Amino acid sequence: MSPLWRDQIRISLRPTQVALLRLGKGLKPRLTAKTAVACQPVADDAPWDGALAALDGLLQKPEWQHADATVVLSNGYTRFQLLPWNENIASEEEQRAFAQHKLAAVYGDSSEWEMRIAEGNAKTESLACGVRRSLLDSIAACCGNHGVRLRSVQPYLMAAYNHVRHELAKGSIWFAVAEPERVCVMLLENGAWRSIHCRSLMADDYLAGLVTVLERERQLAGFGDQAGRMLLYAPGTTPSALASVAQTKYQLVGPASEYGLDWRTDSSFAMAASA
Fold this sequence. Notes:
The chain has helices spanning 49-59, 92-107, 133-144, 156-164, 206-220, 239-243, 270-273, and strands at residues 8-14, 17-23, 31-38, 67-73, 79-83, 113-118, 126-132, 148-155, 172-178, 182-189, 192-200, 229-233, 251-253. The chain is α/β, with parallel strands linked by helices. The chain folds into three domains: 3-76 and 134-153, ATPase, nucleotide binding domain (Nucleotidyltransferase, domain 5); 78-130; 158-273, Protein of unknown function DUF3822, C-terminal domain (Nucleotidyltransferase, domain 5), CATH 3.30.420. It has a five-stranded mixed sheet with strand order 3-2-1-4-8. It has a five-stranded mixed sheet with strand order 11-10-9-12-13, sandwiched between helices. The protein is globular.
């Protein structure tokens, strides 16, 4: 059956929140339901257990069943690593092994991670994304148990990147994707990835903590005030609030305000809507 003839569910999983959007079937889907619930982060080998328990509880309700699902994962559940261009790699299998080696050198054993690689242009770096298979298997099982067909799982960073990639094609650009608990910062040069870092944020003052991290990343990169454009993907953040704590000029970007959502009040659903 064509995806156009089944309802769509957009799901976001964060350590402290799960959000769902349901879109009616058809060429011009409309929003038919939305919900967001808080959950408790778990500090162990499966820090997503709280979010999955919350998702399981929501999918038990009939209004969230019998649909196709796309899941967007918090960047805290994903590991990222740039892969240098290597002309000796001749196959996808070799590239995947190379990615596992590079991620293991930074994060430890990566044998239990599912790898996805976003290829750069010739002679530029590629971006490797690693997610634990146990998390992916748990998401698939949770959806399958409730009549929900899982279509895709993607990190928030890549979902956001795909929304604004046309803005990132030329010049020197810092691109930051913010969540309440963390921010991922990428530097791009004419569309090619040059660096990527994910940092935790202060819980007591999100916006001030976000700006502090962004400024520190720029200084550590040695750009000083010559940083090029600064694009911030942080739906719900207003220009006036940002200007009150930041001296640097940031360009706020994000998903389109579709399905009747307003990011000033519906920012909890921005991650899900980025799918």
